[in-house]
């Protein structure tokens, strides 16, 4: 009876309403539920060639570079990434565009028919959306699958991958992945099933762990003809070009010229740059962009409590003229008084964010949530 009532409730909800009831954040990782769900779903899916992207930073841009190029080369491709900035549809990009609501709800209805109600109830937000992406990838040529916070026990690792691309690995999500770079690298690289290509790394420990696998390092390509990307993204581009070479796909750099990288050091106005980076490694690369241009910035910032926000602000301090705290409604956000005290300890002038002023040169940084909130405010101001 309970199972019947559960199924009835699930069937009455569209995807958006359904996901609102799902757990968005992990308390602990239980890989068993997604494995069981995939055993049901796999009978209905013909997986394409799976390229799994694992790492701490650069997964989103690497995946979009690759997926964009594959589509421009005539291959039917799905790029699965997370989290989204403004709308859920950003997470599933098929053949050059974000997936439509109609296609999402159709896939949602299929999953409700395929999976047992008790399994659907146990699946987290990320696990369920991963299954939707796997279902929608059926019969395509390539699936570019970005891991969430981990590797070995990440929902995206429920399928066998044909090629693994490893972006920069650093300390992040220690409570789930380990306290050292070595431990994190072990957890992430265990997700590799076949061939692995490792991007340039800051920590030698990553290469030591990779040496236990069938891996090669990303090559250095001449990308000087491409002028429209922030400097740090060229490392990710080298990883993608190495992958294309491995796949025996002809390389034509012009195909990258119109790629859209939402939220990756993106200049959305003459005085506004947004970046979804949120950890010291991301801060280290973006600070160089502004030092190189000899620019000072008004930093619009906030951080999740479990991030090393003190280190992030230490790294960004040379370019910070002033910091504006953007309040975000999320229980994981660091307490405001603690962030203010951190700014005082570092000698960073700070205030509350209120309005966008044309006279200031803004960098919006700290997390996807910060960028999302800022864009919402900007759009409301422009109405």
Describe the protein's architecture and organization.
The protein has 383 residues and is of the alpha/beta class. It folds into two domains: 2-256, UDP-N-acetylmuramoyl-L-alanine:D-glutamate ligase; 266-382, Alpha-Beta Complex (Protein-Tyrosine Phosphatase, Chain A). Helices cover 40% and strands 15% of the residues. It has 15 helices and 14 strands. Strands 4-3-2-5-1-6-7-8 form an eight-stranded mixed β-sheet, with helices on both faces. The protein has a six-stranded mixed β-sheet with strand order 9-10-14-11-12-13. Strand 9 and strand 10 form a beta hairpin. Helix 9 runs parallel beside helix 10 (204-210) and helix 12 (280-292) runs parallel beside helix 13. The chain starts with a helix and ends with a helix.
């Amino acid at each position: 009876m309970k199972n019947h009532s559960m199924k009835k409730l699930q069937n009455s909800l569209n995807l958006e309403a359904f996901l609102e009831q799902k757990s968005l954040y992990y308390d602990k990782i239980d890989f068993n539920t997604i494995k069981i769900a995939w055993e049901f779903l796999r009978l209905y899916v013909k997986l394409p060639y799976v390229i799994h992207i694992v790492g701490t930073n650069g997964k989103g841009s690497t995946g979009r570079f690759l997926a964009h190029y594959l589509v421009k080369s005539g291959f039917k491709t799905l790029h699965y990434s997370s989290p989204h900035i403004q709308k859920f549809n950003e997470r599933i990009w098929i053949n050059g565009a974000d997936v439509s609501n109609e296609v999402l709800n159709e896939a949602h209805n299929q999953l409700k028919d395929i999976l047992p109600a008790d399994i659907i109830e146990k699946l987290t937000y990320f696990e369920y959306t991963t299954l939707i992406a796997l279902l929608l990838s059926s019969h395509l040529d390539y699936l570019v699958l970005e891991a969430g916070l981990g590797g070995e026990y990440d929902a995206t690792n429920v399928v066998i991958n044909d090629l693994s691309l490893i972006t920069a690995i650093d300390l992040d999500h220690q409570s789930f992945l380990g306290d050292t770079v070595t431990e994190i690298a072990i957890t992430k690289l265990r997700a590799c099933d076949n061939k692995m290509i490792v991007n340039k790394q800051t920590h030698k420990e990553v290469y030591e762990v990779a040496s236990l696998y069938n891996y090669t390092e990303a090559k250095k390509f001449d990308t000087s003809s491409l002028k429209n990307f922030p400097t740090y993204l060229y490392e990710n581009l080298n990883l993608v070009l190495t992958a294309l070479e491995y796949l025996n796909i002809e390389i034509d750099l012009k195909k990258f010229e119109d790629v859209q990288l939402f939220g990756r050091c993106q200049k959305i106005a003459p005085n506004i740059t947004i970046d979804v980076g949120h950890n010291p490694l991301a801060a280290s690369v973006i600070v160089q962009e502004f030092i190189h241009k000899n620019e000072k910035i008004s930093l619009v910032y906030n951080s999740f409590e479990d991030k090393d926000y003190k280190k992030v602000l230490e790294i960004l301090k040379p370019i910070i003229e002033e910091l504006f705290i953007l309040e975000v409604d999320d229980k994981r956000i660091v307490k405001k008084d603690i962030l203010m005290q951190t700014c005082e300890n570092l000698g960073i002038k700070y205030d509350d964010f209120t309005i966008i002023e044309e006279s200031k040169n803004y960098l919006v940084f700290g997390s996807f949530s910060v960028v999302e909130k800022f864009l919402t405010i900007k759009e409301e101001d422009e109405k």
